Amino acid sequence: MPALPTFDCKLITGVVYAATAIGLFKLASMTYSFLSLITSLFLLPPVDFKVYGAKKGAWAVVTGASEGIGQEFAKQLASRGLNIVLISRTQSKLEQIATDIETKYKVQTKVVAADCSKNTPELYALLSRAIEELPVSVLINNVGRSHEGPVPLVETPDEEVENILTINNLFLVKMTKLCIPVIDKAIASKKASRGLIVNVGSFAGLFPTPYLATYSGSKSFLQNFSQALSVELKSQKIDVELVLAYFVTTALSAIRRSSFFIPTPKDFVAATLRNMGRRGGAQDRFATSSPYPSHALLQYVAHNTVGVYSELLANATFKAMKATRAKRLKKLQRQKEAKAE
Ligand SMILES: NC(=O)c1ccc[n+]([C@@H]2O[C@H](COP(=O)([O-])OP(=O)(O)OC[C@H]3O[C@@H](n4cnc5c(N)ncnc54)[C@H](OP(=O)(O)O)[C@@H]3O)[C@@H](O)[C@H]2O)c1
Ligand SMILES: *[C@@H]1O[C@H](CO)[C@@H](O)[C@H](O)[C@H]1NC(C)=O
Ligand SMILES: CC(=O)N[C@H]1CO[C@H](CO)[C@@H](O)[C@@H]1O
Asked: What residues make up the domain containing 203?
């Protein structure tokens, strides 16, 4: 039997060693990031909002504050001792929540009824007037719009596409721009030692989501916008954080029952504030947090296996979206028939 040429043996041994080394390195880095995930979400004490001016008379601005995740941000920041500016379209809902907050948490509130989908100078003038004299140290860019349901791009109404991009991107950028000098002033006047800008992102920006393509793209915009801005504002003592959520039980997701992977807004925001500034499940990206434990696990596993931006995952998401769309169309058809009777 002819012996294998020695150089082949050396080559094979070399490849095996290299593969083992890469494997061990990968294993070690995965173990390290998993331990960091656990530490950041469970072992470290809750973040203290004193640095952001809690109980020192500083204010937090929350957009989309009348429902869902935004309403919880308003309440839970108030419970930490921040005064709150609440923004959404509906004055009556805002006033109700503001009254509840003032009674329960003994902080001040201000409400601004405004439609964030109207990209007009009047809108930004109104918002600017409302906040410029307040020591604002925290901005929660929460307002967001998604599609009415999963839909192919060509069938998406223009109004829907424009609203999603205006609210989720253009408004968020301009609102942020407007708030930075106000936050600077609050820090200069010692109402807070640091400022905080939170952008509410979504797993739709992490996994390309067919049939919600415009929403998916609008949320992935926030990834690099938030990271770039976080570096830009570091020396100004303003922290910028993209917060990633998978499903949460709100009107936007149209999911009513909470489960292991789908928290209520209350539980989601509690985890978010507790872990503010810590990466959680977003170990692979700075200025980003995936703060809810089961979401963090999902992201960690996706990142370390198929990859969050992979075609495989996009294919799987497409299948789920097709099923959701079919169910929704059937339901709409039934409603139409019921009306006709
Ligand atoms: N729910 C989820 O599963 C999920 C998952 C990932 C990310 N997110 C993100 O979380 C954020 C909050 O979503 P949510 O689920 O809490 O939504 P939601 O329950 O539908 O609440 C949306 C809030 O925004 C306000 N709003 C809507 N359109 C507005 C407009 N044109 N101008 C001003 N205010 C407006 C609404 O109040 P009015 O009707 O009074 O204006 C309401 O207070 C969004 O950025 C969303 O993309 C949600
Ligand atoms: C995704 O689906 C398409 C069409 O069904 C297929 O051609 C492609 O190979 C799939 N990709 C992966 C990575 O599964
Ligand atoms: C275009 C681009 O630079 N995208 C980056 C945005 O941020 C994510 C997460 O940190 C990167 O993976 C992308 O490459």
From this structure: 50-330
- For residue 108, tell me if it sits in a domain: yes
Identify whether 215 is a catalytic site residue.
yes
Ligand 2 pocket test, pick from 308, 309, 311, 319 with the greatest ligand atom count within 8 Å of Cβ, gives: 311
Residue to probe by mutation, ligand 3, list 285, 290, 308, most atoms within 8 Å of CB: 285
27 within a domain of the structure (yes/no): no
> How high is the mean pLDDT of the chain?
96
Q: What is the DSSP code (8-state) at residue 251?
A: T
**Is any ligand 1 atom within 6 A of the Cβ of residue 150?**
no
What does the block give as tokens for 25?
A: 């390195």
Structure-token pair, residue 130: 């409302």
CATH number at residue 223: 3.40.50.720
**Tokens found for residue 253:** 């997701």
The closest of 337, 336, 224, 241 to 288, measured between CA atoms, is: 241
- For the stretch 36-82, pLDDT in tens is 999 999 999 999 999 999 999 999 999 999 999 999 999 999 999 99
